[in-house]
């Protein structure tokens, strides 16, 4: 009871955050519709593949056999998918629409609660923690990510933990090195491009530390090294497939270079609008512009500077045209830096706003504490208002043949049309992670065109967990199957494991005997992948035991 009484304020604030998140999600869910656009179909297809495999009793997914036109593309080997399991799992108990909103609620709740806990660890105060959780969770750019850009949406949930870990190692308690290791691993499980952006800011912070403190103490460097090694152990299952099947094997990834930039005027105008998009909220923008009036202390000025730097990087104020051929262009969309602007500015605004609120009378403080979560809900709803109005009138999605390769239109759908999504071509990412040789023939492969002795032939195809089964009756010859070939692709012909060739299309090609043939194409990871998976689980258990033991001591 004493522990409950001690943490009563924290529990009340966490409950308030949960209620705020629930109301914000219900605002969209009450339409009983989904808004399909941008990357939505890419991630929905991955969640659907996991769901189909789980139904068949297969817990791991490597290649796409039910979705992505059954080409066997490795959209799972090279793009982490751990956090899509809750979405797939909810499909067993909820309708497709409600399964998505259930997953969306869980991600937002995790973001709000983790933000609160990180700020509480940083400030040791409850009110700034509540304010930070609200400001960060309901940042308009983050809400925009939650409409389709789910990889980044998941990753930014863990940014507070990453930067808390950096702060502890470099400035406060280096014995909490594990925070950075855990945060880095969770970001890696969600979105690899965000890892690159985090490393950019980490490098900047290291430079600031070196200049301001004229170096870094040896014990802090050792803590950084421990954190790095622990993080590598935790993410080995993500690293290994790149080493075994990607590096040196001619597999392509997302298009290199900047795809979208935005001017400062666009950023400012959007920030005061009611539509979702690449923007900050008016109150975050206000503090960014006028925060210098209140900021005190070197550390706060550092955070404020990082907020401004990320804001500049998000727009064309930064000379991106000079860096379009460098690794920095991997960011693809400069607006991604707004997540970091939101993080740094939210931290400072929460701190100084809380200082102002504590000067009020107890009655006014209590009233504000109740109103603040509602304010967060209104912020979210205002960003989603126009979208929700459209979602109130879902459209019927036309039935199409898979072979038509019709790109999924931007539309709203209900439960009855959900299954039709997967007959359409994914808007972005359909051909990501194709072997380079397959890019030229990508549409032919996606249309499931098989070639026997270089002539088109019809096959009967059955999708299974990480495998595709083809049956054909022929006079024999070289059969070029419409399934992509990777380093650990395996072939079974009439029950016997056989070798195969990689065709000029970058697909599987085998020598076919005369008569009836049954070909099974599957993907079987290298043994080191399973060792990496086991070592990763052991690392998590070891780290959990270490933290528990440290907590007891």
Automatic annotation (TrEMBL):
Name of the protein in question: Membrane protein 6-pyruvoyl-tetrahydropterin synthase-related domain-containing protein
Keywords for this protein: Membrane, Transmembrane, Transmembrane helix
Keyword Membrane attributed: yes
Lineage: Bacteria, Bacillati, Bacillota, Bacilli, Lactobacillales
Residues that span the membrane, as ranges: 101-123, 143-166, 178-211, 223-244, 280-295, 302-323, 335-354, 366-386, 529-548
């Amino acid at each position: 009871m004493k522990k409950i009484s001690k943490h009563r304020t924290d529990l009340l604030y966490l409950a308030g955050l949960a209620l705020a998140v629930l109301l914000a999600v219900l605002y969209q869910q009450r339409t009983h519709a989904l808004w399909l656009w941008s990357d939505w179909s890419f991630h929905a297809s991955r969640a659907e593949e996991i769901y189909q495999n789980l139904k068949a009793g297969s817990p791991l997914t490597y290649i796409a056999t039910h979705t992505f036109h059954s080409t066997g593309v490795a959209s799972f080997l090279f793009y982490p998918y751990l956090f899509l399991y809750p979405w797939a799992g909810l499909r067993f108990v909820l309708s497709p629409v409600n399964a998505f909103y259930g997953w969306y609620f869980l991600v937002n709740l995790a973001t709000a609660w983790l933000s609160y806990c990180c700020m509480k660890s940083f400030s040791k105060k409850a009110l700034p923690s509540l304010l930070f959780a609200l400001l960060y969770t309901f940042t308009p750019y983050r809400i925009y990510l939650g409409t389709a850009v789910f990889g980044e949406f998941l990753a930014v949930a863990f940014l507070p933990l990453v930067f808390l870990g950096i702060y502890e190692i470099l400035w406060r308690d280096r014995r909490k090195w594990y925070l950075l290791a855990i945060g880095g691993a969770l970001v890696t499980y969600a979105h690899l491009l965000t890892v690159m952006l985090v490393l950019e800011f980490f490098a900047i912070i290291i430079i600031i530390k070196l200049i301001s403190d004229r170096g870094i103490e040896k014990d802090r460097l050792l803590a950084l090294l421990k954190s790095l090694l622990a993080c590598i152990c935790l993410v080995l299952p993500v690293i290994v497939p790149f080493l075994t099947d990607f590096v040196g094997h001619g597999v392509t990834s997302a298009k290199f270079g900047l795809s979208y930039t935005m001017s400062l005027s666009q950023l400012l105008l959007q920030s005061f609008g009611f539509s979702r998009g690449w923007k900050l909220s008016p109150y975050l923008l206000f503090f960014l512009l006028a925060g210098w009036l209140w900021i005190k202390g070197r550390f706060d000025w550092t955070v404020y500077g990082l907020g401004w730097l990320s804001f500049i990087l998000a727009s064309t104020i930064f000379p991106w045209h000079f860096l379009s051929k460098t690794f920095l262009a991997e960011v693809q969309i400069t607006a991604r830096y707004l997540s970091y602007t939101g993080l740094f500015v939210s931290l400072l605004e929460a701190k100084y706003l809380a200082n102002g609120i504590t000067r009020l009378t107890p009655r006014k403080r209590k009233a504000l504490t109740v109103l603040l979560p509602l304010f967060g809900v209104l912020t979210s709803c205002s960003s989603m208002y126009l979208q929700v109005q459209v979602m109130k009138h879902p459209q019927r999605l036309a039935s199409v043949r898979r072979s038509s390769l019709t790109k999924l239109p931007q539309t709203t759908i209900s439960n009855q049309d959900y299954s039709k999504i997967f007959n359409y071509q994914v808007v972005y990412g359909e051909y990501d992670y194709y072997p380079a040789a397959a890019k030229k023939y990508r549409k032919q492969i996606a249309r499931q065109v098989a070639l026997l002795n270089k002539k088109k032939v019809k096959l009967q195809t059955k999708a299974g967990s990480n495998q595709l089964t083809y049956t054909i009756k022929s006079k024999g010859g070289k059969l070029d199957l419409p399934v992509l070939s990777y380093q650990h692709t395996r072939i079974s012909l009439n029950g016997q494991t056989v070798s195969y060739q990689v065709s000029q299309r970058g697909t599987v090609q085998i020598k076919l005997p005369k008569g009836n043939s049954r070909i099974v194409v599957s993907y079987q990871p290298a043994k080191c992948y399973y060792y990496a998976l086991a070592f990763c689980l052991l690392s998590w258990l070891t780290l959990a035991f270490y933290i528990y033991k440290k907590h007891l001591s």
